[in-house]
Amino acid sequence: MTQQRYDRQRRFAPIGDEGQQRIEAATVLVIGVGALGSVAAEVLARAGVGRLRIVDRDTVEWSNLQRQSLYTEADAREGLAKVHAAAARLGEINSEIRIEPIAADVTAANIEGLFAGVDLVVDGTDNFDIRMLINDVALETGTPWVHGGCLGASGQVFLFDPGRTICFRCLVPSVPDPTSVATCDQAGVLGSATHVVASLQANEALKYLAAGAAAATPKIQTLDLWEGRFRSLDPSDLRSGECRACDLGHRDFLHRRGGVTEPVVLCGRNAVQLPPPAEDRVLDLSAMSRLWEGLGETQVNRFLARLQIDPTRSITLFRDGRAVINGTEDAAEAKTLYARFVGS
Ligand SMILES: [Zn+2]
């Protein structure tokens, strides 16, 4: 059965029988099974990656169905955890591989455990904070990871390989000010674009697993589907020799665990307070309220900006990036809303 299942992939000479065996022996961690992670996970499951560990903190929502092709209306109606809906579907697609669903928020406290025994990581996240954390652990453990990002009809993909390529912080030295980078909830995103980006990520993963580091694309691949533009950028131009993470060895995001960086559930107030980001910043609250146009009623003054997301939930954002999410006592849900409506 297996012989037939992977026949077309084995016949592709750069993979062949040996490459296929390496794919089947591999363990891949997919962090986030949203628009990018769910599609990449499906491609990897169909290709026969022996063990897929999938992690996500969210449940399936109706607004996901436009692009997250693993999920159905029934999943959204039942509000299933994404990892459980994904594991069920991936199990139907390929019952010969092992799927490990983990419903969790990825933090500095648990990310090293998630990396244990993993050959490669796929970035299916939507925020810079977690990518910085992935980058720290990848450097620490020498694990390659495939970054993907998508917004509107544009996206980019690159396989970061510790010791061989630049790292994510060479590219993005610090978490960008959220008023300078829109989120998908603010600017929208096309399912056609997320599928292309996720497919390129799965492609980089399979090349690396089947044929080794030399097979990985050495350039950053960028695309704008609406304009029909595909480009490759040489990342070696971005090497400064002074990157805090890969050159100087700091693991700022991994070592930030505990302390004031954790969300605080404000019991009795049906709210969660999220701490300010690690880096000092002063947000332009008027700029943020402009990004919220059309998303709900907004209010802004010198000290705070507030967005009423729906009748029960609101975000109050302060100038240092701290926020209070009203309408939930679930820290994971609060972080998801922050990532969606503020960014990171
Ligand atoms: Zn670096």
Structural overview:
34% of the residues lie in helices and 20% in strands. It is of the alpha/beta class. The strands form two sheets. The chain has an eight-stranded mixed sheet with strand order 3-2-1-4-5-6-7-8, sandwiched between helices. Strands 9-10-14-13-12-11 form a six-stranded antiparallel sheet, with helices on one face. It is globular, with a radius of gyration of 20 Å. 42% of the residues are buried. Bound molecules: zinc ion (ZN). The site of zinc ion has 7 residues, from helix 9. The site of zinc ion (ZN) has 7 residues, from helix 9.
Secondary-structure topology with pairs:
Layout: H1 2-5, H2 7-11, H3 16-25, E1 27-31, H4 35-47, E2 51-56, H5 73-78, H6 82-93, E3 98-103, H7 111-115, E4 120-123, H8 128-141, E5 145-151, E6 154-160, H9 168-171, H10 184-187, H11 191-211, E7 220-224, E8 229-233, E9 264-266, E10 271-274, H12 285-291, E11 297-300, E12 304-308, E13 314-318, E14 323-326, H13 331-341
Parallel strand pairs: 1-2, 1-4, 2-3, 4-5
Antiparallel strand pairs: 5-6, 6-7, 7-8, 9-10, 10-14, 11-12, 12-13, 13-14
The structure holds zinc ion.
Zinc ion (ZN) is lined by residues 166-167, 169-170, 243, 245-246.
